[in-house]
Amino acid sequence: MSAVTEKINLKQLERKAYLSYHQDGLVDLFVGTALLTFAVFMLLGLFLSEDYFFLPIWSGVFVAWAVSYAGAKRAITMPRLGYVQFSARTRGRVTAIFLGFVVVNVVLVIFGLLLWLDSPFQHVVIPILEANFLLLLGLVGGGIFVALGLVVGIRRFHGYSVVTFAAFALSQVFAIALVWPTIVLGVVTTVTGGVLLARFLRKYPKAKAGEMDDASPSEA
Amino acid sequence: MPAPAKREPDFSIIDGIDRVIHEPARLAIMVHLSVVESADFLYLKVQTGLTWGNLSSHITKLETAGYIQIEKKFIDRKPQTVIHLTDAGRAAFRVYQQRMKHLFEDQEKK
User: Fold this and answer.
1) Stretch A109-113: mean pLDDT, rounded?
2) Position A219 confidence tier, pLDDT thresholds 50, 70, 90
3) At residue A34, does pLDDT exceed 70?
4) Do residues B39 and A84 touch, judged by C-beta distance below 8 A?
5) 3-class secondary structure, B56
6) Which residues of chain B lie closer than 8 angstroms to A74, CB-CB?
7) Contact (CB<8Å) B70/A86
8) How much is the ipTM here?
9) Is A211 touching B (CB cutoff 8 A)?
10) Helix and strand counts by DSSP (H, E) for chain A
11) Nearest CA in chain A to B71
12) Are B75 and A83 in contact (CB under 8 A)?
């Protein structure tokens, strides 16, 4: 009995199949390139500029990022691993991640707005946040990676959380500008993504045209 | 002295095992389809490690048994052949799992 359950562990099998879809390194590549894009914006002085010029640029980058990520998944991952629709439970978990992000963001925005109101907090909290801005960014960024790693099950995200916190904390201690820890994190995730993608392409060569049709009994 | 009567092996304990599912390649296909809603041939080939020919013949057997259904779908405006377990297939797989579980449990008790 134990041998059977060990070999046919359905939950683990589903998890393995689900994770194989994230071993292509695309998510790392896209997160990395997004971070490097922001770093370039910072160097060009377009990051959080007072004339709000950054808003349409950021929106455009975000839309282009989401569209090209979906396109890359269709062009690179699907022709190699095939099409699969995961169970409603698995998809529900992914939806929960998005909802989690929305809730966290809403809470942060509300908290931020409250701080700007004329309240006793304004004089106490804002100077602390301003003085430890990079440390705070490191904690938030690292926390997001930890949450993603735990919920999606991608272990390398825990490594990114350590890199994020270390880079931003060191920048806080040594008074280094925000752009440099962003570049460090962007380079680490981009290089990791590139290595994973190269490994993925070697491990799963693209199926030759017509092979799949030959396999379909309905078409034979 | 008469020779001791040869004891016939008792196969009755495996009488209830579904032979269509019990074959290793078909079992692998059923297992992989049981944890997803639907998948295409390439996904099953990658996950099971079967050749196209083997995969095709076992899929045909499972389809004939009514355990899986093959459908043509348009995904991102491209035609795609998608396979999923039928209700009968899911039920048969559950029964198979239970039978195998009991079989091994009974053997461990003996």
Assistant:
1) 71
2) very low
3) yes
4) yes
5) helix
6) 76
7) no
8) 0.77
9) yes
10) 11, 1
11) A218
12) yes
Residues of A in contact with B82 (CB under 8 A): 83, 85
Given an 8 Å threshold on Cβ–Cβ distance, is B41 in contact with A88?
A: no
| pLDDT at residue A7 tops 60 | no
Asked if the C-beta of B88 comes within 8 angstroms of chain A's C-beta atoms, the answer is no
> Of A29, A32, A34, A80, which is closest to residue A195 (Cα–Cα)?
A29
d(CA A192, CA A220): 43
Q: How far apart (Å, rounded) are the C-alpha atoms in residues A142 and A81?
A: 30
Tell me, yes or no, if B69 comes closer than 8 A to chain A by beta carbon: no
User: B77-82 long-range CB contacts below 8 Å, 24 or more apart?
Assistant: B80/A83, B80/B40, B81/A212, B81/A216, B81/A218, B81/A219, B81/B40, B81/B41, B82/A83, B82/A85, B82/B38, B82/B39, B82/B40
Amino acid, res. B103: L
Starting at the edge strand found earlier in the chain, the sheet holding B68-75 runs A84-86, B36-40, B78-85, B68-75
Amino acid at residue number A145: F
> Between A185 and B107, whose confidence is greater?
A185
Report the phi/psi class of residue B30: left, alpha or beta, with left for phi > 0 and alpha for psi in -120 to 50: alpha
Long-range contacts of A68-74 (CB under 8 A, 24+ apart): A68/A30, A69/A26, A69/A27, A69/A30, A72/A26, A72/A30, A73/A24, A73/A26, A74/B76
Q: Name the amino acid, one letter, at A129.
A: L
Specify whether the CB–CB gap between B36 and A86 falls below 8 A. yes
Question: Cα separation of B37 and B43, whole Å?
Answer: 12
Residue A117's identity, in one-letter code, is L
Strand partners, B74: B79
Q: Are strands A84-86 and B36-40 parallel, antiparallel or unpaired?
A: antiparallel
pTM for the complete prediction? 0.74
